[in-house]
Amino acid sequence: MSEHVIDVDGRRYRFDGLGTLLAAATPHRSGDALAGIAAASAEERAVAQMALAELPLATFLEEPLIPYEEDEVTRLILDRHDRAAFAPVASLSVGEFRNWLLSEHADGESLKRLAPGLTPEMVAAVSKLMRVQDLVLVGRKCEVITRFRNTIGLPGRLSTRLQPNHPTDDASGIAASILDGLLYASGDAVIGINPATDNTSTVVTLLKMLDEVISRYEIPTQSCVLTHVTTAIEAIERGAPTDLVFQSIAGTEAANRGFGIDLALLREGREAALSLNRGPLGNNVMYFETGQGSALSANAHHGLDQQTLEARAYAVAREFEPLLVNTVVGFIGPEYLFDGKQIIRAGLEDHFCGKLLGVPMGCDVCYTNHAEADQDDMDMLLTLLGAAGCHYIMGIPGSDDIMLNYQTTSFHDALYLRQVLGLRPAPEFEQWLESSGIYRHGQGIAFGHELPSRFQHVLGSRGSAGLPS
Amino acid sequence: MREREPSSAGEALTVTNPWQRLCEFTDARIGLGRVGGSLPTSAQLAFQLDHARARDAVHMALDTERLMPELDRRFPLALRLHSRAIDRDEYLRRPDLGRRLSEEAEQELAAITPEPCDVSICVVDGLSARAIHEQAIPFLDAALPEIERLGLSLGPVALVEQGRVAIGDPIGQALKARMSIVLIGERPGLSSPDSLGLYFTWAPRSGRRDSERNCISNIRPRGLDYAGAARLLAYLMREAQALGASGVALKDDSEVDSRLGDGRQGNFLIPSA
Questions:
Q1: Which among A25, A189, A230, A361 could disulfide-bond with A159, CB atoms 3.0 to 4.6 Å apart, if both were Cys?
Q2: In which domain, by residue range, is A254 found?
Q3: Which residues, including other chains, have CB under 8 Å from residue B181's CB and lie 6 or more apart?
Q4: pLDDT in tens, chain B (273 residues)
Q5: Hey, is A191 helix, strand or coil?
């Protein structure tokens, strides 16, 4: 284990090991305090950041934080590392790398070429030296574009995942939220349901229903039922019309085992989805969720800070060429991110680290009712992520997820962000919204009290549709 | 407070949604209307009130005085235990302490020398004591007959304050239970400060991973009803005995009572031809 020593104003500071240094340099958050690895004082944190700034980036290739032999995520990171892509920054220290990223050397093209040469540890390290505005600026420079039934991540675009969850997976209840979302111009990233149970029959039924809605209304979007990858594979075997395979992932082999997965299983899930060949525009068939604190909560953190581990999860994600990846930043709870301030910074770190590694990042801008956070905090993170070029946010009726019991962004929130920053939906979906008379860029929602003709029948003949009178 | 007549000018600014009556189908906040693209004032204020209520539910204390006699009536023995987290603030910051028993509780468990049993049940406050107050006893009244029908023996029940899901592991282990059921208050949602979660673990012992458990969520009258949740639990117990495991190894393949149909006929967006 290497010792890192730095002298500041005549005083010598020691950090015994790279993991210790990274943890001490991390802006304060409750999860690192819970793990007992946070800096002991504000001064120690600032000094650790100075020591980290002097560290050569290449150190992370020589000194794995979790041994190669012990952890398949470490093996993935090092085996996949592209030395040629790394060359432009190979001689830089972490501090110099921050300067490089903010300079004119770093633009969409150069960052795309660099991505395979970066490891999660490098991007986590440099993020610890960055302010919020740096995270926004560099995040915005990155371009990652993915395709399935539409195109996600183009500059100037903001997509939403329509999340029509219902506590008993009731078909009409789910349909009501889907209609609400579509008529508020939401759903281009995915229409994605978190089912109340992992029951395979329910999952198959929900997939059929989403497929039917998307094809009947000719919506250029994709569907997903966010169930365990093994259930998704079973559903595909039973003939369920599956667009995207979902899985929660983390940054260590042991944490992934806690989720009941490994890399081989993810590969199997991806192959199952690819075998259906359902994406007319592209083959990005995976949807991953991550979040700081997941490894610690599975007691699988190897003494490392949660933000570095989160970045390692993005190395797992990029191996499988996902359509969508989002951090569920405020979902895991106050023991990892205590309040609005910690959630806001973490959301921007996650977006930055993912994008720099070439991952198509969205964010579940969210909080639970036991965290010290409220709607004002979410508005700040939402607006900052819009400025940073975040691919997508969640969209849910009135910010209230009645199945998962937390608050995320609403359909109205996406309209706000599009209005304030001039952002547009994914192009294929935007065209559908316009031709359906739902939404027009620059104008907003394009209808008043009369439903657009495409949807008039749903309230029309209430006998046949089984509507309440 | 004096009610003020809404002015017609203020009303006219809000665009209402004709699909608002679909609220019949869901508690989700659909059809809120809009001013421009934003939330109308009334919907904004309603949200703030619900958030305030959910915040209050997190900090409500478990009413052990009322619950202990109810449990005593239904179980051969009822234990009142406490986690290692002293109060709510420590509970929120230190989930590790919420998973472990207090020293006092450990001693109490060590003092009884239980016969091996099939099932141990823990009733735990979690993040909503209100969920336990309202759902725990009616759910038990639906579930205990199912357990009896399966011919399974019940060990002592434990009522646990400031506990997390995994606290069922050391308790089940000490009570020599083949399987453990933890009833716990889920994190309160805006519309559901009263939602009960159930976690089922085969062969409970300290160190079990979350992937080794099965969860039944949202047990409450407006969510998954007591009888439906009890049937699902019975299914899990039968399958776990056959398999000798719980968690991701035990797929929920039950054809649960469902209003879903086959997905091609079930709702107003896709009316049957």
A1: A189
A2: 146-443
A3: B119, B120, B121, B122, B143, B168, B198, B199, B200, B233
A4: 455 665 666 667 999 999 999 999 999 999 999 999 999 999 999 999 999 989 988 999 999 999 999 999 999 999 999 999 999 989 999 989 999 999 999 999 999 988 999 999 999 999 999 999 999 999 999 999 999 999 999 999 999 999 999 999 999 999 999 999 999 999 898 988 899 999 999 999 999 988 899 999 889 998 889 999 999 999 999 999 999 999 988 876 665 444 444 444 468 888 764
A5: strand
Per the structure block, which two tokens stand in for A214?
């998307």
Whether A167 and A86 share a structural domain = no
Q: Is A434 annotated as a binding residue?
A: no
* B194 in reach of chain A (CB within 8 A): no
Contacts of A395 (CB under 8 A, 6+ apart): A160, A161, A162, A163, A181, A184, A186, A187, A409, A410, A411, A413, A414
The alpha carbon of A201 is separated from its chain's Cα centroid by a whole number of angstroms, namely 28
Using an 8 Å Cβ cutoff, are A143 and A130 in contact? no
ipTM of the complex: 0.94
- Reported in sequence order, the residue ranges of A122-243 that DSSP labels E, i.e. its strands, are 146-147, 151-152, 159-162, 190-193, 223-225
Whether the Cβ atoms of residue A157 and residue A423 lie closer than 8 Å to each other:
yes
Number of inter-chain CB pairs under 8 A, A vs B = 265
Q: CB contact, 8 Å: B43 with chain A?
A: yes
Domains: count for chain B: 1
Beta strand B177-185 with B196-202: parallel, antiparallel or unpaired?
A: antiparallel
A247 annotated as ligand-binding: yes
Residues with Cβ within 8 Å of residue B273, at least 6 apart in sequence: none
Token readout for B179 is 């399987």
Count of structural domains within chain A? 2
Closest partner residue to B29 (CB to CB) among A231, A333, A397 is A397
Q: Tokens 């969409």 map to which residue?
A: A108
**Dihedral sign for Cα atoms in the order A44, A50, A51, A55:** positive
Domain annotation covers residue B181:
yes
Pairing of strands A324-327, A361-363: parallel
